[in-house]
Amino acid sequence: MNITFEELRRIKHALPSGSISRIAQDLSLEEQTVRNYFGAQQYKDGEVVEFHLEPGPNGGIVHLEDTTILEHAQHILNEHRSIH
């Protein structure tokens, strides 16, 4: 999946407080892994394992191989919007 870096950051900043922890817990990940994902970097054992950024408008295009974290974040946003 391709998404602009700006959109990825917008999603992260729109998440309600505690969402990074919730995503990490729900997906059995470290919180730092979730934070790095929204910075367009994915790490494993301290090494970058996925990072693909094409230059362009809106911070460039990020190619995400695994969208699980993004989908979970979007679910939380939808949940939050339906409550408010």
Distinctive features:
single chain; 84 residues; alpha+beta; three-stranded antiparallel sheet; two-stranded antiparallel ribbon; 4 helices; 50% helix
Task: Write down how many β-strands occur, each being a DSSP E stretch of 2 or more residues.
Answer: 5
Q: How do the strands line up in the largest sheet?
A: 1-5-4
If helices are DSSP runs of H or I spanning 4 or more residues, what is the number of helices?
A: 4
* Helix-strand makeup class: alpha+beta
What number of domains?
A: 1
Shape: globular
Terminal CA distance reads 29 Å
Q: What average pLDDT do the residues reach?
A: 84
Helix share of residues? 40-55%
Radius of gyration based on Cα positions: 13 Å
Written description of the protein model:
The protein is α+β, with helices and mostly antiparallel strands and about 80 residues long. It has one domain (about 1-84). Helix content is about 50%, strand content about 20%. It is built from four helices and five strands; from the N terminus they run βαααββββα. The strands form two sheets. It has a three-stranded antiparallel sheet with strand order 1-5-4. α1 (about 5-15) crosses α4 (about 70-84) and α2 packs across α3 (about 30-40). It starts with a strand and ends with a helix. The relative contact order is 0.24. The model has no long low-confidence stretch (mean pLDDT about 85).
